[in-house]
TrEMBL record:
Pfam families: DUF4336. This is DUF4336 domain-containing protein. InterPro entries: DUF4336, RibonucZ/Hydroxyglut_hydro. PANTHER family: METALLO-BETA-LACTAMASE DOMAIN-CONTAINING PROTEIN, YALI0C07656P.
Length: 271
C-alpha cells in the first residue's frame, strides 16, 4: 500500500460520521487514484436491527474505528464491493474472525496472485450462480445486485430500513470534499483531479459521467449492465453512499436516474 495512494496515518484524517445514528456510519478517508487524483475512499458500517454489523468496502481499521465498532455491535459481515475495494479485508477479518466475508468472483484469485492475507470467502458472487440468501437477518434488511457487467465486478447493496444505496465504483460523486476535509488540502486542487472530477461529477446533466459509464464501464456487456441498473432502480432508496465523493442525501433516486438515464431507457427497449 503506497503512501501515495492511502494516508500514512489514517487516524488523523479519517472522518467517522453517523449518517443515520445507530444505523449507518461512514468512514471517509483521503485516497489518491494513481497516486495523484483525489477521489477519496469510504467504508460503510450498517447496524442491523439484530445488532449485527455489516461492513462494506472496509478502510483502515484504526483505534477510533475499533472503538466505534465496539459501541455499535458485533461485526458479522464484511463485504468487498468489487475487485478493487479489498485492501483492508485482511486486517478486518483478523480482528473479527467470525465475520462472513463477501466478494465478487475474480477477487479471491486476485488476492492469491497478489500475495494478500488469506481470507476465507463465505460468499463469492458469480454470474452463473446467483446468491439469493445470505442469512435471515441480512436478507430481512438488504436487497443486492451483482453487476457482473461492470468492469470491476460490482456489488451493490440497498439497506431498506434506511433507504440507503451502498456502492463502490458504480458511480462517483466528486469532488471528495468530506474525504479530504481533515487533510488541509483542497479536494478539487490539481489539474488531473479537475479533469477527472469533471468526468465523475453528478452536477448539472452529469453528461460526462454518463459517457464514461456508457462507453467505458459498461461497454463489454451493456445489455447486462442495463438490466442490472434497471433492477437497482426499482429499489426505494433516497440516499446514496458511494466510495468516491460525497454522500448524496434525499435526492439519491433522482441522481441515480440522471446518471444512468441512457441505460434505463435502453433497458426499457430490451437493449
Amino acid at each position: 500500500m503506497s503512501s501515495k495512494l492511502v494516508p500514512s496515518d489514517p487516524a488523523k484524517v479519517m472522518v467517522i460520521r453517523d449518517v443515520v445514528p445507530r444505523v449507518i456510519t461512514t468512514l471517509s478517508v483521503p485516497f489518491w487514484r494513481f497516486g495523484r487524483i483525489k477521489v477519496g475512499g469510504r467504508g460503510t458500517i450498517v447496524r442491523l436491527q439484530s445488532g449485527a454489523l455489516a461492513v462494506f468496502s472496509p478502510v483502515a481499521l484504526t483505534d477510533d474505528v475499533k472503538a466505534k465498532v465496539s459501541s455499535l455491535g458485533e461485526v458479522k459481515y464484511i463485504a468487498a464491493l468489487d475487485a478493487e475495494h479489498h485492501i483492508f479485508l485482511g486486517p478486518w477479518h483478523q480482528a473479527y474472525p467470525n465475520a462472513q466475508v463477501l466478494g465478487p468472483e475474480t477477487l479471491p484469485e486476485k488476492r492469491d496472485k497478489q500475495g494478500n492475507e488469506k481470507v476465507p470467502f463465505a460468499f463469492v458472487f458469480q454470474k452463473s450462480k446467483p446468491i439469493t440468501s445470505i442469512s435471515p437477518e441480512f436478507d430481512a434488511e438488504f436487497d443486492w445486485e451483482y453487476v457482473s457487467a461492470h468492469l470491476n465486478k460490482e456489488l451493490v447493496f440497498h439497506h431498506r430500513p434506511s433507504k440507503t444505496l451502498i456502492t463502490a465504483d458504480l458511480m462517483f460523486n466528486l469532488p471528495a470534499t468530506e474525504q479530504f476535509s481533515k487533510t488541509g488540502v483542497d479536494a478539487k486542487s490539481g489539474i488531473l483531479t479537475k479533469i477527472f472530477g469533471a468526468l465523475q461529477s453528478t452536477a448539472g446533466t452529469a453528461v460526462w459521467q454518463k459517457r464514461v459509464i456508457w462507453y467505458g464501464t459498461s461497454a463489454s456487456d451493456r445489455k447486462g449492465f442495463n438490466e442490472s441498473v434497471a433492477r437497482i432502480n426499482k429499489w426505494g432508496f433516497e440516499r446514496i453512499v458511494a466510495c468516491h465523493g460525497d454522500v448524496i442525501e434525499g435526492e439519491g433516486k433522482g441522481v441515480f436516474e440522471k446518471v444512468f438515464g441512457w441505460h434505463l431507457e435502453a433497458a426499457k427497449k430490451g437493449n
